Amino acid sequence: MVKDLNLNAMNHFEAVARLGRVSKAAEELGVSPSAVSQQIRLLEQQFGVKLFRREKRRLSLTLDGERLFQTTTQAFRMMRDVRSAIVRQRENRHFIMRVSPSFGVRWLGPRIKNFLDENPGWDLRVDGTPDFTDFETEIVDLDLRYGAGDWSGLHQEAVVDDFVLPLCAPSYLEELRKLSDDPIAQLRQARLIDSVKTHCRWDFWLARRGAMGGRLVYPLRFDRSSMAIQVAADGGGVVLESATLALPEIERGALVPLSVGFEVLRFPAYWLVCPSRHASRRIVRLFSDWIRAEGRQHDAHVAATLTDLGCRIEETDTLASITRGAV
């Protein structure tokens, strides 16, 4: 059985068989020739066969020794290759993270070069996926995740806020204003675009304003905020979405608030999540410090942009505290 094998003796045997001399094997292994000879004798006693025969001043393998050598040299070569790969990986310094897809594309992607410029020498891998990381079985340093901050047993820190409000293209808003001057009446006749994976959706938002009466139809549903935002910017309807993700469209006027009379809901939405043991890793600390500063700057910019448009911002610690007051 494997547990019965003397791996130290096997290592000595492989070196002698490969180099042909005990003295050369001893030099490579950093031990004395007598230590090498002793390990070979132990291995021959364990197998009950002769592994070498002496021919003049050189050792040659017996048939049994040749069979053993073919297996051991391949195994030790594979182990040396793996060791070299591990050492190279440690020297190269890898950072692996996951991120919610739309946030990764629209927020993190345009900024990540700044982090790399400030922290050269790191190899970065970013997986944009809706699936949360199983840190016990997957090799991931941290997860940058959209949510309510309810990941039990994990280190979590809110780093970027959401600013949620109804948005549409200016051309679509003009169409709605031809139907009514009342924003609630406009919504009842509008094509509503539903972002199905957001925490703040139309049914909750409309109920909170007592506007559930009349037609409530979602002819357009998307599981990615980036798709919902793009369709709204193209004039496809009204989307209840994040100004955090839609800021470029808002700044260039491709999206506008449906009504500045509707307050903007602001709450922590994007979180750094990882096991507590990961939080002490140098790269995790570096990234956390960087994104924390980026998040503060971004949140202030979004708030100022929406305020300049005439919007009022309602702040809350968590989305749950808003939904508790919903109908």
TrEMBL record:
Keywords: DNA-binding, Transcription, Transcription regulation
GO BP of this protein: DNA-templated transcription
Family (UniProt): Belongs to the LysR transcriptional regulatory family.
Keyword Transcription in record: yes
Protein name, UniProt field: DNA-binding transcriptional LysR family regulator
HTH lysR-type domain segment(s): 5-62
Gene Ontology MF terms in the entry: DNA-binding transcription factor activity; sequence-specific DNA binding
InterPro entries: LysR-type_TF_proteobact-type, LysR_HTH_N, LysR_subst-bd, WH-like_DNA-bd_sf, WH_DNA-bd_sf
Pfam families according to UniProt: HTH_1, LysR_substrate
Keyword Disulfide bond carried by entry: no
Superkingdom in the source lineage: Bacteria
